[in-house]
């Protein structure tokens, strides 16, 4: 008989493999049933009443056809040293917990500090130019003093250039994959993926044996954006995965930078477009970006809290506003992702609430998507 915690995890893996059941639906099912194992113990009448759960999904869940496969999957992960990070685990990346479309489980290999103080996503074209290669390598070199975790997609071009530059500078790096961990794509990057596991590693939301189908890459890009405090687009065409990553980053209220390129250059058309339409800040140097994000400023929460010698009353504010103001007061200043996680609010709702509190003269925004009381 398996311990209850293992049973719960196996049931989550079974839900992931059930057709028609995505990450949002899984959270819905678990929330209403009080646990993944309880989902499979529920009957049709209970499951069909859950909002957003249709007849097809209920029948697929009740078939329980993927429970045995999930148990085999769990054992394979144990045998091959694959680490599983479930969304309700302490090891699950805090930057992803507040995202409505975050994976419910991540598979990883290596030594990854998902909650590093600073994370930077570096993305770009697979058809990298000499200019793009030089910018990527110099950017990684200049990021080294800030001890950032560099996130990318292990693909050709900008991605692999960034990963290999990190290995040369001893900077931790994570490759987010669109396949299972046992299928390195492209296969020519297998050695690099192995070397990355010394200081960083590889991660995916896909089960073992999953092939890198075309539609899995946009889903992969949302994880890159979600894990990154700031995303830098080195080179990009007018269309491509990099621009999809930017869209996700903007939806998650993360900072985006783009490297300007030569007018008429196909590799820089996307970057110039992002800068022109104010969808990304212009990237001129790591130092300029660090200044804008507040990395070069020593902020000590205890110093900020001293401006409040007496207790502050939050009477007159809504319950949500009072909760957010209390959290910020306790910490001195807070990053929007941490606020979302602590408050349990979706990022879009929280961003609107914070904007209203700014208009009321209660909070001020700081570099790096942080907020403090006025």
Detail the topology: elements first, then pairings.
Blueprint: H1 4-17, H2 23-33, H3 36-41, H4 44-48, H5 55-62, H6 67-79, E1 83-86, H7 94-97, E2 105-111, E3 119-123, H8 130-143, E4 149-152, H9 158-169, E5 173-176, H10 190-196, E6 200-204, H11 216-227, E7 230-233, H12 241-251, E8 255-258, H13 269-276, E9 281-282, H14 286-293, H15 301-305, H16 319-331, E10 333-335, H17 336-343, H18 347-359, E11 363-366, E12 370-373
Helix pairs in contact: 1-6, 8-9, 11-12
Model description:
The chain is an alpha/beta fold and 374 residues long. It has 18 helices and 12 strands. It has helices spanning 4-17, 23-33, 36-41, 44-48, 55-62, 67-79, 94-97, 130-143, 158-169, 190-196, 216-227, 241-251, 269-276, 286-293, 301-305, 319-331, 336-343, 347-359; strands at residues 83-86, 105-111, 119-123, 149-152, 173-176, 200-204, 230-233, 255-258, 281-282, 333-335, 363-366, 370-373.
């Amino acid at each position: 008989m398996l311990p209850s915690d293992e049973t719960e995890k196996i049931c989550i893996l079974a839900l992931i493999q059930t057709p028609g059941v995505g990450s949002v639906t899984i959270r819905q099912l678990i929330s209403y049933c009080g646990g993944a194992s309880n989902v499979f113990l529920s009957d049709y009448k209970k499951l069909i009443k859950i909002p957003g759960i249709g007849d097809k999904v209920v029948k697929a869940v009740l078939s329980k056809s993927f429970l045995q496969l999930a148990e085999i999957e769990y054992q394979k992960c144990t045998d091959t040293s694959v680490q599983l990070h479930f969304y309700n685990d302490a090891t699950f990346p805090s930057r992803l917990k507040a995202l409505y479309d975050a994976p419910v489980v991540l598979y990883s290999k290596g030594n990854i500090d998902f909650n590093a103080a600073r994370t930077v996503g570096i993305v770009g074209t697979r058809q990298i130019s000499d200019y793009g290669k030089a910018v990527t390598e110099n950017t990684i070199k200049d990021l080294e003093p800030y001890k950032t975790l560099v996130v990318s997609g292990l693909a050709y071009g900008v991605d692999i250039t960034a990963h290999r530059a990190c290995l040369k500078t001893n900077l931790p790096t994570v490759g987010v994959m669109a396949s299972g961990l046992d299928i390195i794509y492209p296969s020519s990057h297998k050695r690099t993926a192995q070397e990355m596991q010394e200081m960083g590693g590889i991660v995916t939301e896909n089960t073992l044996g999953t092939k890198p189908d075309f539609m899995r890459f946009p889903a992969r890009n949302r994880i890159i954006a979600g894990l990154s405090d700031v995303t830098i687009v080195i080179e990009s065409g007018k269309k491509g995965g990099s621009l999809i990553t930017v869209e996700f980053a903007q939806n998650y209220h993360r900072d985006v930078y783009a490297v300007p390129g030569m007018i008429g250059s196909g590799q820089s058309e996307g970057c110039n477009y992002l800068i022109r339409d104010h969808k990304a800040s212009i990237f001129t140097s790591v130092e300029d970006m660090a200044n804008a994000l507040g990395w070069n400023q020593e902020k000590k929460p205890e110093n900020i809290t001293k401006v409040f010698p007496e207790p502050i009353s939050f009477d007159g504010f809504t319950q949500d506003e009072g909760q957010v103001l209390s959290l910020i007061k306790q910490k001195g200043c807070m990053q929007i992702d941490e606020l979302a996680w602590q408050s349990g609010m979706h990022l879009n709702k929280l961003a609107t609430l914070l904007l209203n509190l700014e208009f009321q003269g209660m909070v001020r925004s700081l570099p790096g998507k942080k907020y403090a009381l006025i």
